[in-house]
Amino acid sequence: MKILICISNVPDTTTKIKFVNNNTAFDNAGVQWIINPWDELALTRALDIKDAQPGTIDNITVVNVGLADTEPTIRKALAIGADGAIRVNAEPKDTFFVASQIAEIVRKDAFDIVICGIESSDYNGAALGGMLSEMLGMPSVSAVSNLEITNGAVELKREIDGGQETVLTQLPFIAVIQKGIAKDPRIPSMRGIMSAKGKPLQVVEPTAVDSLTEFIGFELPKPKAACRKIDAENVKELVDLLHNEAKLI
Amino acid sequence: MNFEYTEEQKMIQQAAKDFAERELLGDVIERDEKSEFPTEHVKKLAELGFLGMMTDPKYDGGGMDTVSYVLAMEEISKIDSSVAVVMSVCNSLVIWGIETYGTEEQKQKYLRPLASGKKIGAFLLSEPEAGSDATSQRTTAEDKGDYYLVNGTKNWITNGNSASTYIVIAQTNPEKKHKGINALIVDKDSPGITLGPHENKMGMRSSDTHSVMFNDVKVPKENRLGDDGFGFSFAMKTLEGGRIGIAAQALGIASGAFERALKYSLERKAFGTEIFNHQHVAFKLSDMAVMIENGRNLCLKAAWLKDQHLPYGVASAMAKQYCADMAMHITTEAVQIHGGYGYVKEYHVERLMREAKLTQIYEGTSEIQKIVISRSLLK
After folding, report:
1. Do B7 and A72 touch (CB under 8 A)?
2. Pick from B115, B136, B117, B139: nearest CA to B56
3. Rounded to whole angstroms, how far apart are CA atoms B347 and B339?
4. Exposed, middle or buried, B67 (CB in 10 Å: 0-12/13-18/19+)?
5. Across chain A, what does the average pLDDT equal?
6. Which of A190, A194, A197 to mutate to test the interface with B (most CBs of B within 10 A)?
7. pLDDT tens, A37-79?
8. Fewest CB within 10 angstroms: B59, B145, B356, B366, which?
């Protein structure tokens, strides 16, 4: 079985977000880049299955749409255990552009499962899986919180209102995963880091796709109001504030 | 000159940071209080390959350079020096010596399980009456033909109980003084070895420190490292590299305390503003940042020299002395910035201060480093 995992290169989740060019572009200065946390969990789950059930998964490839500066992130995926990587050499302008590039990769090679995170932690588009499904004419299952492979059959679990749904799928398909799919992302071992240097990282040029969106501007959320402490004995003041100031009651 | 870390070095640094924050931070205070050896934590550290990270991959090591080792040691020591010292002893004091001076048979038998982290090692040099003066070895390794008969007591042995493989420094020919000393690889479960109780230390309390007694312990001749009488030189050469690890450990203790002090200074308010806005606190932090940068550069210079196969003994002594003394100063300042909160365990800095003290003492006191440095000035 061959698995393709789509990975985004995103700012570390503790990054202080700033914008430049009259608030139309993200300020990259001094930012540490990581694998999108959902994508990393997807990779972790695939590796867990590969290790626990030898012979089930033959190959795990990661794909990223990005310029050369995303390669450290891709190398980390290889150090964690991915067998190979593909980088589409282009700036990921928007989700339609990224989906178009990845769809082209999937058309050229036969992957049994294509996995992507439910969203990326930077732009939170949450649209890649659905777009890929449409472009490729492949079934997709969204919000997957568990993935098991038994005798070539894939069983998925989805969190739904008030319970859990179990889905059996045929191959190939697209899994859009959410948190819960794996416990903790893996820390690369020394051996993994060394071997990452020798693993294949194929760079392919993008196909021509029209950019359909344009960033007009970004706004930061308003700073959180300072915390007000009220004496535990002073219930009247608390009720007054909630009623008259916060207007919550 | 290039100050940029390689992609691999950055990845190792991040891996060590992730490991320390994810696996060590949660129970570091509790383990310190109970003097509990971090068995499971060390097992995970070994699985990631940190215990033999500089060893040739053909002996199951990680094949990394010394710069990477410094970066990893700093990150782990920011959180837990009791775990970092296990890593330092294994990499620098035990594995390096066997890899550099061991026979192929010794490497196959002892190096491979150590480098892969399946076994832990310990380095037995200090004695009740031979600390800084390592030439005064009272432990004897009597030449009995095809084996050595070892008798004596070793003190302050890190990993004393958790190690499976010891490197023991002992005197074979007292009339030759330090040129009669040998270094022997000894299995810890050899008959005649007994352990003293776990030392109840001021800091690095979850590292297992013991005295080890040898009573007619037979060690096969083939377990000697290097030629007859090479033991003292072996120990000194090994300690040259060991100092880089302890320097990096001290650096990590200092930078860990600094990061906590900086964070606290931006949260704690006094006189209507965050204490960082009081110049006395800001200047303290400024001085700390400069000292840490100096210390890091000294560590990296020593590591770089070692990686280039250039002499590094004096550079490692400078790094060790500076970083140990600097860690003591910086952790004290970090406690001061925290005020009363710094004096209680929840804020970590008092523990880092206790840990810093040991870096001025073990693997060559700060005074011994000054002897090494000052003697080099006359050459």
Report:
1. yes
2. B115
3. 11
4. buried
5. 92
6. A190
7. 999 999 999 999 999 999 999 999 999 999 999 999 999 999 9
8. B145
If asked whether residues B237 and B372 sit together in one domain, one would say: yes
Do A187 and B57 lie within an 8 Å CB cutoff? no
Q: How confident is the model at residue A223 (pLDDT cuts 50, 70, 90)?
A: confident
Q: Write phi, then psi, for A82 (nearest 5 degrees).
A: -60, 145
Residue A75, chain B, CB below 8 Å: the answer is: yes
Q: What is the ipTM of this complex?
A: 0.88
Give every CB contact of residue B361 below 8 A, 6+ residues apart in sequence: none
Would you state the pLDDT for residue A63?
Answer: 98
Contact A187 B48 (CB under 8 A): yes
B137/B198 same-domain check: yes
Give residues with Cβ within 8 angstroms of B352, minimum separation 6. B81, B253, B256, B257, B260, B331, B334
Owning domain of residue B190: 121-231
Below-50 pLDDT ranges, chain B = none
Ramachandran bin of B368, using left for φ above 0, alpha for ψ from -120 to 50, beta for the remaining angles: alpha
CB pairs under 8 A between A and B: 47
CATH number at residue B22: 1.10.540.10
B61 plus B130 within the same structural domain: no
CB B210 within 8 A of CB B195: yes
Residue A212 within a domain:
yes
Contact A191 B62 (CB under 8 A): yes
Burial class (CB in 10 A: 0-12, 13-18, 19+), A114: buried
Segment A136-154 shows an average pLDDT of 92
Give pLDDT, residue B313: 95
pLDDT at B293: 98
Is B363 designated active site? yes
A197 in B contact zone (CB under 8 Å):
yes
Torsions phi, psi of B124, nearest 5? -110, 95
Which residues touch B289 (CB under 8 Å, ≥6 apart)?
A: B258
Q: Is residue A215 included in any domain, yes or no?
A: yes
The rounded distance, in Å, linking the Cα atoms of A180 and A129 is 18
Residue A214 has pLDDT above 90, yes or no: no
Across residues A20-34, what is the average pLDDT?
A: 89
**CB contact A76 to B (< 8 Å):** yes
- Identify the bridge partners of residue A35 per DSSP, sorted by sequence position: A9
- Residue of B47, B222, B363, B367 marked active site: B363
Residue A14 vs residue B294, higher pLDDT: B294
The answer to whether A12 contacts chain B (CB < 8 Å) is no
For A96-106, what is the mean pLDDT?
96
Determine whether the interchain pair A193/B11 forms a contact, defined as Cβ–Cβ distance below 8 Å. Answer: yes
**What does A42-104 look like in DSSP terms, one character per residue?**
HHHHHHHHHHHSTTS--EEEEEEEE-GGGHHHHHHHHHHT-SEEEEEES---SHHHHHHHHHH
Quick check: helix, strand or coil at residue A184?
A: coil
Chain B residue with minimum CA distance to A187: B15
DSSP strand pairing (A25-26 vs A19-20): antiparallel
